[in-house]
Amino acid sequence: MRSNENTLLLGKKVVLVPYTAEHVPRYHEWMKSEELQRLTASEPLTLEQEYSMQRSWREDTAKCTFIVLDAEKWQARLSTTEESCMAGDVNLFLTDLGDPSLGEIEVMIAEPSCRGKGFGTEAVLMMMSYGVTKLGLTKFEAKIGQGNEPSIRMFQKLHFEQVAVSSVFQEVTFRLIVNEHERQWLLEQTSHVEEKCYRDGSSESH
């Protein structure tokens, strides 16, 4: 999505940056993992296919992607690359043509050392806040594999309610309606987030 290509969101634990060509090699290494392929229902791609996918995602008006960076590593870096700070990604899919206010959200904390630290929770909150304030979303859905207990617990903690189970796809669908009460709660949870201008691996105050 072009609308977020110059946006950096700085949180306490994570930094969200647009998915650029610089991030592709690390992302490609992650997606060789059979566990991640299973959790994300993905097929392995060649590196060239991954670069092509990155370019198509950037142009896709129905897909908003941020790479999740470890904020502590990112803020401490001097000579290290942004790629070395990568923890995962978070996505919004605006695929319901009949309801432009609905976004399907998914998060992946791919780096094993970054799991269990609350990175996924903050990344989802930041992405939902972005979706509400910048994209006009008022409803979110999350489709999670039935065996992915950590993700199920996380979305339940974020006020999502289970609305469907698919035995065919072995996934559970959760939904959150962002009424005024939920909107205020969401904005409070993300009041610390700073928006900055992103320029391929660097940032300047917005």
TrEMBL record:
The molecular function terms in GO held by this entry are: tubulin N-terminal-methionine acetyltransferase activity
Which stretches make up the N-acetyltransferase domain?
14-161
Q: What class of enzyme is it?
A: transferase
What is catalysed by this protein? N-terminal L-methionyl-[tubulin] + acetyl-CoA = N-terminal N(alpha)-acetyl-L-methionyl-[tubulin] + CoA + H(+)
The UniProt record lists the EC number as 2.3.1.308
Q: What does this protein do?
A: N-acetyltransferase that mediates the acetylation of the N-terminal residues of alpha- and beta-tubulin.
Query: Which family does the UniProt entry place this protein in?
Result: Belongs to the acetyltransferase family. GNAT subfamily.
What is the official name of this protein in its record?
Alpha/beta-tubulin-N-acetyltransferase 9
From which source organism is this entry? Zalophus californianus
Q: Which gene encodes it?
A: NAT9
